[in-house]
Amino acid sequence: MGGCFSKPKPVELKIEVVLPEKERGKEELSASAKGSPRTYQGNGTARHFHAEERLPAPHPYPGAQDYVEAAVCHIKDLENGQMREVELGWGKVLLVKDNGEFHALGHKCPHYGAPLVKGVLSRGRVRCPWHGACFNISTGDLEDFPGLDSLHKFQVKIEKEKVYVRASKQALQLQRRTKVMAKCISPSVGHSGSTNVLIVGAGAAGLVCAETLRQEGFSDRIVLCTLDRHLPYDRPKLSKSLDAQPEQLALRPKEFFRAYGIEVLTEAQVVTVDVRNKKVVFKDGFKLEYSKLLLAPGSSPKTLSCKGKEVENVFTIRTPEDANRVVRLARGRNAVIVGAGFLGMEVAAYLTEKAHSVSVVELEETPFRKFLGERVGRALMKMFENNRVKFYMQTEVSELRAQEGKLKEVVLKSSKVVRADVCVVGIGAVPATGFLRQSGICLDSRGFIPVNKMMQTSVPGVFAAGDAVTFPLAWRNNRKVNIPHWQMAHAQGRVAAQNMLAQEAEISTVPYLWTAMFGKSLRYAGYGEGFDDVIIQGDLEELKFVAFYTKGDEVTAVASMNYDPIVSKVAEVLASGRTIRKREVELFVLHSKTGDMSWLTGKGS
Predict the structure, then answer these.
(1) Which H helix or E strand runs over 205?
(2) Per-residue exposure over 87-124, b if at least 16 CB sit within 10 Å of its own CB, e if not
(3) Among 427, 443, 466, where does a domain finish?
(4) What is the per-residue pLDDT across 523-567, written as a single tens digit (0 to 9) for each?
(5) Same domain, 241 and 276
(6) Does the pLDDT at position 23 exceed 60?
(7) Cis peptide before 62 (omega within 30 of 0)
(8) Any signal peptide, and if so, which residues (predicted)?
(9) Nearest-CA neighbor of 493 among 223, 203, 265?
């Protein structure tokens, strides 16, 4: 592969900490989400630190009083493949028995705190029941996304047929572990016009790329630039919780970026990329040379093109400020949402308790129709109608009318006039790749950046990830697809970083996404585009169901509500390379009144 890094030089030795034998193999020491220093790693190798990195005071090794140890069960209490939450006094631990061995890990998913005991254990890892993140049971390491942090791994010993777990009290309370990372040993002072790695876009793909480079020992300069005025934040929360403040949404605190030498340029717009000279130019004229480039610019929301489109109080939700203003304007007033996709429906659900009225305008017959199908879409629509949301379907906006410049009415093509003080437009997005048109980097006819399995663009040394790419989806015969979802952006950012370091990693993750409305979550895994049938088990009216999307005789996607952990189970099966056949699902629906899922993992008949 042309133009890739050779393996990075190890971080220069300033302090060497080699742990005594008995302390090795436990990475649970000082792990706050702020990326505090680590003095050891799971495999017991020495780690190297900078002098200014503080070792835990006053002693590098905590005393016995910082640990808790207890017998948690008899060795026969757990069968192989079983998981159990056990109490250690200072917190709970997830105990796992796999292939005759016991493992003890943090019990909550660091992403949003899901109880992992309700997840899926398979192939040496546990998958979160809520959003599909995967953790290695031997190391606690995060192996699939979403989220940034790993789990603590605790010591297990067997004595007199009893299982004992030993854990640090701090780790039990923190429930997350930030991986050991290198620091930057070539800060920008004196040569700020060049960087080793430049990342354009600070969403999930950009941040995970930067963190992965540091986790893999890369210690040269990394610059992350974003159009936003904020450090990387949890964008999926914007439409689910519009009141959230930027600091509540931040994925990492300011100190984290400082500690690991990840420079973030906010409100920084790249206008040209010169791949021949490996240089980018910003809107303010600043030029920056790079040796590796990741393009993760995301997408730009589509806007209305009707009469009155320049009226005030019409929003596309891109930033926390947009979301906050919408809530403020909607309180006790009339809100109109254009578009019944994920963003529109999440906003509508959130505003029902705040606004006087909430109306949704959509071109299709039912919400989510292309994504979830007619029947599921209708069941969700009913839930919204029960919460006072009014739908105007199979129509679109023909005019926005103002009074003193501010929105007053939304006129529909059906000639219906809807009162509106605020309007949110969620009618899809286009890749934000205009700045690449003259760059020589290949774009497709819709403006997406095509990449291979290694996230490499048509230009060596230039990688791309996130909402703006099309990539080969491994388990759908390498079909080139665009999957603009949070979890996928994480996975692609990681693969891009690994390949910047010439590790020859390939993207293979199974897409996983979720939505939350009225306190209920819908989970989805797979890639169902073009499905020709939907098989439903459970009760749609009660919103307790699982829907299998099929094409020909193959299951291509699954969605569920109140049916955990079925979506994570299907994701695990698909990730293992097994095809789920339509007839398997039909037999299950025909014969199963119990909701037994053992057929999926091959444990049942």
Answers:
(1) helix 204-215
(2) ebebbbbbbbbbeeebbbbbbbbbbeebbbbebbbbee
(3) 427
(4) 999 999 999 999 999 999 999 999 999 999 999 999 999 999 999
(5) yes
(6) no
(7) no
(8) none
(9) 203
- Let me know if residue 115 belongs to a domain: yes
Angle of the 486-500 helix axis to the 204-215 helix axis, nearest 10: 40
Q: What is the CATH number of the domain that holds 593?
A: 3.30.390.30
Per DSSP, what are the bridge partners of residue 343?
A: none
Do residues 318 and 392 both lie within one domain? Answer: yes
Number of compact structural domains in the chain:
4
What is residue 543's DSSP assignment?
T
Task: Please give the Cα distance from 110 to 257 (Å, whole number).
Answer: 19
Task: Output the CA torsion sign for 552, 553, 559, 562.
Answer: positive
Per the domain annotation, does 85 fall within a domain?
Answer: yes
In a domain, 69, yes or no: yes
- What is the three-class DSSP state of 10? coil
Identity at 115, one-letter amino acid code: P
Q: Residue 418 falls within a domain, yes or no?
A: yes
Q: What is the pLDDT of residue 605?
A: 32
Helix, strand, coil % in the chain, rounded to nearest 5: 20, 35, 45
The pTM score is 0.88
Cα–Cα dist 598/569, whole Å: 10
Sheet holding 417-419, edge to edge: 397-403, 406-412, 417-419
The structure tokens listed for 181 are 């990372």
CB burial class (10 A; 0-12, 13-18, 19+) of residue 511?
buried
Q: Are 154 and 166 in contact (CB under 8 A)?
A: yes
The amino acid sitting at 243 is: D
Domain that holds residue 343: 314-427
Does one domain contain both 423 and 439?
A: no
- Beta bridge partners of residue 67, listed in sequence order: 168
For residues 265 and 293, membership in a common domain is answered with yes
C-alpha Rg value of the chain to the nearest Å: 25
Q: Is the pLDDT reported for residue 34 higher than 80?
A: no
Q: In what helix (H) or strand (E) does residue 373 lie, and over which residues does it extend?
A: helix 369-385
Same domain for 420 and 437, yes or no, is no
Judged against a pLDDT cut of 50, whether residue 30 lies above it is answered with no
